Fold:
Amino acid sequence: MDGLGARLVRILRENWLFLLIIAGIVGAFLFFRTPASAVSSVAEVDAILQNGQPTLIEFYTNT
Structure:
């Protein structure tokens, strides 16, 4: 068990910068991602667009 812990510490010391970059990318993705909308029908979209307040519409396609 002691050899496994020493190996883990060695791997972390050798790859700390790479792991930090990966953690930063994952953290940025989670912080900046667009959450799902609660709008579930076209009628709700029409009501939101016609309520007199400025509205930002973001279209996304995964093709």
About this structure: The mean pLDDT is 90. Residues 2-49 form one domain.
